[in-house]
């Protein structure tokens, strides 16, 4: 609808009850924030989102969405915050996701990405037992939340291109393969959660380069070998590494003797 062409923020969290996600909602050319979290929405991620060419924040969490993450997501050049967590999404993480311009280049001011556009950002992402609430003045750290879905496949090495990303949460999926060494290039990462997947191999020692990392978990995978030495990893609790019998190191109890 042309009536919505100037709308910049649309927050409908907890407003629907088990309905199909709209398939042909057009005319939201100016939309920068779209939050449809905890609406019990069904169906697939709709292609009309691609017409929201200025979209920066997309929250579809806590719904019943199925199908795969569409490859066209990577063409949303301003998108820097996406939360698809707690759905029934399947398939692999599309490599096009590693082409999100808003997570590659530093042109977005991550401390207040809307300030330059004159948009008062009056919403904040708050995790709660009832999903998300948007009710405080704050800004959004560049983030990808895909936790608690049915995503499979591997983590592509191209993930390392997302150098502006602060939060990467892929926990509670069916992701396999190894942890890409290229994650160590994501120097702004503060949260990296890969727990409850089917990852194998070792933890790349180069992850010690992630000096801003304050939350890290690879718990309940099939990882082996030593936990990387270094100040960064010594600060993480045992629970970050639980459920990987083949891991050994000073933060892991009980320790596994050296071969």
Structure description:
The longest helix has 4 residues, at 101-104. Helix content is 3%, strand content 22%. The protein has a single domain (2-248), classed as Alpha-Beta Horseshoe (Leucine-rich repeat, LRR (right-handed beta-alpha superhelix)), CATH 3.80.10.10. By secondary structure, the protein is mainly beta. It has helices at 101-104, 231-234; strands spanning 9-11, 33-35, 42-43, 57-59, 64-65, 81-83, 90-92, 125-128, 131-134, 143-145, 150-152, 167-169, 176-177, 191-193, 198-201, 215-217, 222-226, 246-248. Mean pLDDT is 84; it is low at 108-123 and 252-259. Helix 2 (231-234) links the parallel strand 17 (222-226) and strand 18. It is built from two helices and 18 strands. The protein has an eight-stranded parallel sheet with strand order 1-2-4-6-10-12-14-16, with no helix packed on it. Strands 13-15-17-18 form a four-stranded parallel sheet, with no helix packed on it. It is a single-pass type I membrane protein. Its EC number is 4.6.1.2. It is found in: Cell membrane. It comes from Opuntia streptacantha. Belongs to the RLP family.
């Amino acid at each position: 609808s042309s009536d919505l062409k100037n709308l910049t923020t649309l927050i409908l969290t907890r407003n629907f009850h088990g309905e199909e996600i709209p398939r042909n909602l057009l005319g939201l050319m100016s939309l920068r924030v779209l939050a449809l979290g905890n609406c019990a929405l069904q169906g697939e991620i709709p292609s009309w989102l691609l017409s929201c060419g200025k979209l920066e924040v997309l929250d579809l969490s806590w719904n019943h969405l199925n199908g795969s993450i569409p490859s066209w997501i990577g063409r949303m050049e301003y998108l820097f915050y996406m939360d698809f967590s707690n759905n029934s999404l399947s398939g692999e993480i599309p490599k096009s996701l590693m082409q999100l311009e808003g997570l590659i280049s530093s042109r977005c001011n991550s401390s207040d990405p809307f300030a330059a556009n004159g948009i008062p950002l009056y919403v904040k992402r708050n995790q709660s037992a009832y999903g998300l609430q948007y009710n405080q003045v704050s800004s959004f750290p560049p983030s990808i939340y895909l936790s608690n879905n049915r995503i499979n496949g591997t983590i592509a090495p191209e993930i390392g291109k997302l150098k502006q990303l602060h939060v990467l949460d892929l926990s509670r999926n069916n992701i396999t393969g190894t942890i890409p060494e290229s994650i160590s290039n994501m120097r702004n990462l503060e949260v990296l959660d890969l727990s409850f997947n089917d990852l194998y191999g070792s933890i790349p020692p180069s992850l010690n380069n992630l000096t801003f990392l304050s939350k890290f978990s690879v718990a309940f995978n099939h990882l082996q070998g030593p936990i990387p030495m270094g100040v960064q990893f010594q600060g993480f609790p045992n629970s970050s590494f639980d459920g990987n019998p083949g891991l050994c190191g000073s933060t892991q109890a009980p320790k596994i003797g050296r071969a």
